[in-house]
Design goal:
It contains 14 helices and 11 strands. It is α+β, with helices and mostly antiparallel strands. The strands form 3 sheets. Strands 6-8-9-11-10 form a 5-stranded mixed β-sheet. The chain has a 4-stranded antiparallel β-sheet with strand order 1-4-3-2, with helices on both faces. It is rod-shaped.
Amino acid sequence: MIVQVRRVRRLRPRRLVPLAASRRLRRYYAAARRQWRRSLQFRVVGITLLLSAILVSAFGYTVASLISQGVLRTQVDTSKERILRGAREAAKKLEGYTQADDPGLPGQVRVVATDLSRSMDVPDSEVIILRRNSLAEASPDTSAAAVMRQAPMRKLRESVVGDRPGTYQQIETLDVGQGPTRYLVMGTPIVTGGEPLELYYLLPLKAENELVEFVALVVTVTGIALVALLALIAATMTRLVVKPVRVAARTAQRLSAGLLDQRMQVKGEDDLARLAAAFNQMAANLQRQIVRLEEMSRLQRRFTSDVSHELRTPLTTVRMAADLLFASRDDFDPAAARSAELLQAELDRFEDLLTDLLEISRFDAGFAALDAEPTDLVPIVRRVAERLESLAERCGVPLRVDAPEDGAIAEVDPRRVERVLRNLLGNAIEHGEGKPVVVTLAIDEAAAAVTVRDHGVGLKTGEEKLVFNRFWRADPSRARQTGGTGLGLSISLEDARLHGGWLEAWGAPGKGAQFRLTLPVRSGDRLVSSPLRLVPDDARADEAALIGETP
């Protein structure tokens, strides 16, 4: 038990540290990505920083390479002259030794190598003279000659002992007793009357390496400073351009929020100043136009409300006279009796129109109030169906209601819900073409929905949005059976919105239409879904069958 606990305590930091680092990196990446999408200045500075870093890096690499090659070329040229001069001196001093087995040759070779080494003006340089009998049997004449037996030097020695005389060089990192150091190794044959010899100069490149490193450091520091300066310049210049754009965006947001007196500050006479002046002119024009439209809308709403109220008095008088004529129609001749009936019907429609206009004016003025209370929707649906049953019989439309038996309780305004259902069901009966109309009620934990399905002429593509417009009719030549005012669906849509609900329509030519009312169970809740589908199941089945038949 104790061992297991200790293991867990040991492993936990090892697992959490990479995980925390990964989360931190993801958080930084997400923040940078969000800033990249939202900030134009951040994108411009980032792109400038990247491109300038690439450009400065390429320029610095080129400069460092050119300086390094120039310094190395100078050292190679100087070393060629030095080794050729040493080869001539060594050839003179070894001119008398013509036999390979001359016992004095090894000593004289060491003396010549020592003299050449002393005459070198390069610190820590080495001079090596090797006998050319064979590469495998070449005996070193100094302690530093052992490096020439190593594999990296084999190619250079093969070039020196070749048929073409000349000087050859190779740059290699060698250890001749002072640690690994870069050397310029120069080699050339020594031409004597006896055994051919090989002369090698090992010249350290410490000074050259230090110069190259210093140049690289200067170029790097200069490049970093230049990139930072370019980024600072880009940020400053971008800010000069982005700041007015940000001010314009904030001003536009305030204008869209209703603060129509907001304006941009105009400074100078440049392009940005002209942009600010044009923006202010546009805002002023919009303000004047919006104020004008608001005044016209207010006057229109007031006119509609005043006319509707003023028409109440003469309508009441006309209603009294029409009721008297309608009650006495049996005493009139057939033509006068028919006129009295038509007058009564048109007065009913006119009174309904005034009522709807008053309701619309209340919605437009924002005076409509919701009296929500817990209500069982099942009796409302059945009551609406019963009241319109006589109309359905007169139109020859079978009417069916599908509602849950245990009730459907929701916080709604029953008067407004009943008016919506009355409008939907009346339209369905009018356009049902003698085919069944089905009213379906369903409820879940969050929403209650009612669908009204008819199988009449249906709706064309795009008309599912137009049906809620005021006074819109799909077929103007079609005679109304219910004497509607053309405002029913518009009022129904406003009633649904007042509840925080949805009123939607679906239709297809020849397949009928379906309207769906969705209301939240608790008043004030936000709707996310509906317990009933907008597209009826039979239409979905027909579409699926059509797709299956398509090759």
